[in-house]
């Protein structure tokens, strides 16, 4: 009897705190509200990127500089969203700025032709990530769609094995039962996907892959589920999945959209996942019957030149290692202050997942492990109060660090988390 009563009063107290925080949010952000009211007239729900919607209205940002963003009401925040990992370089890196400007001034933007810049960047990507050949795409969603098309063309098979909680793009999301984040759904080739219901469960993955057998075109997997809650995949699990795919003559596609930043040669290399044989010939336009892969901006000069400069001169192997070590230390300190509370942290290096659960468990190998224990009320309360303290984080509980974020700012966040947990001791401390 006692646990139920405690739970109810805890949830009631959390609801009261949440309502108060929401009221302050509304009072503090009239310009964001006005912007949202305007935007709903032209964009469905005032939104053109679903995950950025938050109720009662999203904050509208007007500017970013270095590791900070400012909203339209004039509040300044430390940017811990980091554009969900894509904003690695912050908002005003001098070399990136200079490369953008010199591309505009000296190269031009849309040359409607192949250029030397795409090869220069491709050569660096191949050398850095141990790849034979690459193709460029504009988004992660697109890259995965083309990778799947390539795998299907190469194997002449259709089925793709994915994992619950996996996110491979707006139309390739497999949140399902296992996912932490409510991340869209799968809306393409729906009948072709077979979902393994647990991430990090090699025996189950093997069974599912063997079941698909000779129909397997590919296994598509993240080395760490990002949108699914920053849940690292075990090396043995991932290597086992790769071997199982090979056994069936299917390809192994490691989606490194988020995780390529976690180690100098990407997370795959770090975990001993060697790329499949070079299947990129399926895109060779000199060969009849190969796949078309077009996209007006695939080789746009801005990205080719900035990507090259950033990888070559800014995010060097040494910088990558030091940055991710800093992330490990940051997460460890957050863990320390949250010990015994309903807040726990997962992730790897510079990518951190925040979880609010009934028992504060840190044992999260798969979204299913926390599915029935999630405390979204506490998650929302945390998000709102971190905004008040000047920290821009995602409501879903994800931090992607930005290069060059001052140590003192990370210290300030750790302290804000400690103060939050102290202020809400009664609802944040676990009963057991
Ligand atoms: C692992 C992974 N794959 C694919 C995507 C899709 O990338 P994009 O949003 O650029 O389409 C994401 C986006 O977060 C991702 O995390």
Automatic annotation (TrEMBL):
Keywords of the record: Pyridoxal phosphate, Transferase
Cofactor: pyridoxal 5'-phosphate
Keyword Transferase among UniProt keywords: yes
Gene Ontology terms for molecular function: pyridoxal phosphate binding; transaminase activity
Cross-referenced Gene3D superfamilies: Aspartate Aminotransferase, domain 1, Type I PLP-dependent aspartate aminotransferase-like (Major domain)
Family stated for the protein in its record: Belongs to the class-III pyridoxal-phosphate-dependent aminotransferase family.
Protein's name according to its UniProt entry: Pyridoxal phosphate-dependent transferase
Upper classification of the organism: Eukaryota, Fungi, Dikarya, Ascomycota, Pezizomycotina
